[in-house]
Amino acid sequence: MPEQKVITLICERAADLDSVCTAQGEVKEIDGLHVVKLPCSGMIQPLMIEAAMKSGAAGVIVTGCQIGDCYYREGNRMIRERLLGQRPPGLKKTVDRRRVLALWLSRPQKDRFLAEAKEFVSFVRKLPVEPAAAAKPAAK
Amino acid sequence: MDKTIDVVLVVVGAVVCLAFTGLMPWAELGMNGAFDNWPLWLRWINENLFLPLPNYDQVASMGASWTDYLKKSGAESRYGDYAYSLVMGLAMIGAAIGIAAVGREEAEEKTILPVKK
Amino acid sequence: MYTSIPKGLTDLALTIEKGTNAVISNRYNPFYYHGALPQFYLWVLFLSGLLLFAYYIPTIDNAYFSANLVNAWTSVDYITDKLPMGAVIRGIHRYAGDAMVITIVLHALRVWVTDRYRQYRWIQWVTGIMLLLMVLFVGQTGYYLVWDERSLVLTRMTVSAFDALPVIGPGLKAWFLNGTAITNLTLSNFLFIHIGLSFTLLFGLWMHYVRMTRPVISPPPAINYMLMAVLMLFVFAFPITSGKMADINSAPTSFDIDWFFLFPYWLMAHVDLVTYWVLMIVATILLVLVPLPNLYKAANPIEAAEVVLTKCVGCSLCSFDCPYQAIEMVPAPAGSRFKLLATVKPYRCSACGVCVGACAFDAIDLPNLLDTDVTAQIRALAEAKPSA
After folding, report:
1. Which residues in chain C have Cβ-Cβ distances shorter than 8 Å to A104?
2. Which residue range is the domain that position B91 belongs to?
3. What pLDDT score was predicted for residue A135?
């Protein structure tokens, strides 16, 4: 079975992954982990996470700067609150919450990112293949 | 492992805060905790209701050296006020360490979304 | 990114920050509250100043050898030596002022090192410089109020500096002395400048904050305790003392210098007055112009977000979340199904995309990074077959 992809939506000012990525934005050490850079983690729409899942990604890692430190003042707090459902728009109920991880790491913290990402990638790939079906009985 | 450090810090912070808070009345009495210096109403309560007053004998020598230092630095009177400021500052540092050790747990570098039920 | 800052400095700042986070976590990292630190000290100054104001007497009455002399110097002396906790309040007021200058400078440095001072933030930088100058001047007037020999020297130096200015000099001198010579009225003027200007700081702060949504103006309690404790330790470690009472007939020449507030006087003592003014004015203009060069050759030119008029439903979410108050909700044009319509003020926009993340209707876009493109890229990546 081909390994499922994992997508990282990352703020370009958070953990600096340039040195560990290929030119296409794939993390060298972890197969199938792709990096999509945005100007701020606050730009991430919950819709983007849903789109990734629908297209067959095993999981999504959201990465912003350290909470409290945002170049644009509050972008990372906003996406954090959106993911937790405290600020509209939030994630749809059908999205499997176990397949979303958020990391808040400053520029020099790429090692922490790699360690967490490795663990997360192997975790989501072991989850049952059909996330929507697995989550449905639990969802009201 | 982090947890034990935090617990130790909370305990240390609390002890420091309480110890220096306990010194505040002593400083306010002019670094002299002798019975005659206590306010009248406290002395009355002590004599009539047998409420024990704290005994500051151990810190008397500290008071002398602090007064010497203040005199050398140019302070002219009310040395107890300066001492009050010092012990209150130290108590606040203890409180800050304790509070920060508790609050540090709420800081996050990683958010795992709660599974919806 | 960060191209306008020397690389070593950025790296150093990031390393310090990382270390601080490791020890006390991002929740208490003072680097994430740097703007709130001087604001906290401002409240401390207001409160302690209020207590001092209750006992301060702004006169120079100089029946010099009389026994029951009541003037500025003796009232400060009374506060320090007789009033319960007077010395502590006075010390806190003095050291909070010093601490405010330090924290303002750190704030400015951090903002500069992290590249957060230019383009759409120019107004914060310029008002910040103005606020720093005001704080310095307010602090200096505080040194006049004590009315010891140092105050007398400082007053005379200030008068001669004003005198050296063409056209506006005589007016400034008369305003400063509240007359033509040092009298009782001079001290009441100093007190008015000291208190009046410090309240004007609030107006400056309003301009400093006006374009920011939810400005961070109070540090967490643990940091407040720490900031306050530092002052109280200094009160004990370096008790505040006055010099000798000023005698208007004497001509004292030297004094202890407080490097946080009185450095202009050091400069004044070492160069002639024309050079002094040229240096001060040029330095101020240069500081104000710091954001300028990058306005014109910015590394990341800003293309403001654009509202897709046909899709906007007027839900206001983007305008709530915009960190720079760049989105205004206006009444929707006639014939629309909705009441409101979002409009972007391009000169305030930072192109951060927070509004894109806030929009559930795909109705706002960054022109050079469409969210549809990002979503398409994500889909393509997720569907791609693994490379063999």
Report:
1. 26
2. 2-106
3. 45
